[in-house]
Amino acid sequence: MSAQSIRWILTALFSASLGVGLIFGIQPPLIALNLMRIGTSAFLIGMVTAMSLVAIILLGPVYPALIARWGLKGSIVSGLALAAAAMLAMPFWTGVPAWMMLRFAGGCGLGLAWIASEVWMNRLSTADARGAVMGIYGTIFSLGTVAGPALLQFTGTVGWQPFCGGVALLGLTLLPLATLRDGSARTAPDRPMHGLARLFAAAPVVMLAAAVAGLVESAELSLLPVYGLRAGMDERAALFMVAVFLLGNVVMQFPIGVLADRFGRRLLLGICAALSALGPLLLPSALAHPELLWTLLFVWGGTLYAFYSQGVALLAEAFGASSLAAANTVFVMVYCLGGVIGPSLGGLAMDRWPGTGLPALLSAAPLVLLLTLLARRTATVSA
């Protein structure tokens, strides 16, 4: 395959990832604010938000088989079509039970498109540029998640407009993918997915990075607007907190990826873990100082998402091409498991300790990753 063909395929995948990021960015704050208006507890808001991740965890074992059957391109298109249909139904079928089911259905599709995209990108990337490629991927994905809350500034959060607007933009991001021939997505057969514990044990730090990223990101996206409202902010300012947090993801992923290629992904992962553990501890005192708050959220957001983007890059170092789809699926399942736990624990922490519960949880998770990295480095040096 020529370098030009590879660049165009990556461009199409980055565009599709922009659409996936848009759905992930727009739905959590949109759901949280709508449910908050009808008196839903923070715990239930977290549960509704987590249903898409529950779907990915439950369907994870069948994703590699679906990818092998439908191909990478077919899996991406089919998954995003299902996610779009579920989102279109949300303004017309409302309430906690209905939105739980629709979030589950949409999550089934998003998971398939998500894993197929990452497998395709990893297979096209070379070892010396994989960190940069995944950094670009992280930037594009984060740009989509930033566009989600930003779109709500124009559509509002009431009625059908924010839901239909999100789906329309998703459709536009799939246009480059439509130009690819089916043959461009053909790959060597994947091994069947089995031995989840074996796959986890083969790269425990990478999988822990996925779990921490999922826990903190999902709790942040779902509950930061609620945290801001409870601290006295208006709705627009609370949504802007999420947008600034995600803007850090957009700007910092490519530089972090380039540095990871040069100095080592595990070193950069440790630095990002240290900064991400510090950020939430400064959040309560920063609320009264906007210039400090926006800077804090920007840096915190940029370092946190590196857990995921560089974790994906590390997967290709730990697993061969035939095991990559299964390993990537386990990585995403672990990430989603963290995402299920995060909003629920965050909601409980906010209900019990309103001012400090959420920041404490968001700090403890990356601290665990940092200590694990230091422990394994010490053990390696000692050996």
Question: Could you outline the blueprint of secondary structure elements for this entry?
Answer:
Elements: H1 3-37, H2 42-59, H3 63-89, H4 96-124, H5 130-155, H6 161-173, H7 175-178, H8 196-202, H9 204-230, H10 235-263, H11 265-286, H12 290-318, H13 324-352, H14 357-382
Helix pairs in contact: 1-2, 1-4, 1-5, 1-6, 1-9, 2-4, 2-9, 2-13, 3-4, 3-6, 4-13, 5-6, 5-10, 5-12, 9-10, 9-12, 9-13, 9-14, 10-11, 10-12, 11-12, 11-14, 12-13, 13-14
Question: Can you walk me through this structure?
Answer:
It is a single chain. With 383 residues, the chain is mainly α. The chain has a single domain, classed as Growth Hormone, Chain: A, CATH 1.20.1250.20. Helices cover 84% and strands 0% of the residues. It contains 14 helices and no strands. Helix 1 (3-37) runs antiparallel to helix 2 (42-59), helix 5 runs antiparallel to helix 10 (235-263) and helix 13 (324-352) packs across helix 14 (357-382). The protein starts with a helix and ends with a helix.
Labels describing this entry:
Growth Hormone, Chain: A, mainly alpha, about 375 residues, single chain
Beta-strand content: under 5%
Please state the overall shape, judged from the principal axes of the Cα atoms: globular
Helix content: over 70%
Tally of discrete structural domains: 1
The helix-strand sequence is HHHHHHHHHHHHHH
Q: Can you tell me the residue ranges where pLDDT is under 50 for at least 5 consecutive residues?
A: 183-190
Mean pLDDT across all residues, rounded?
Answer: 82
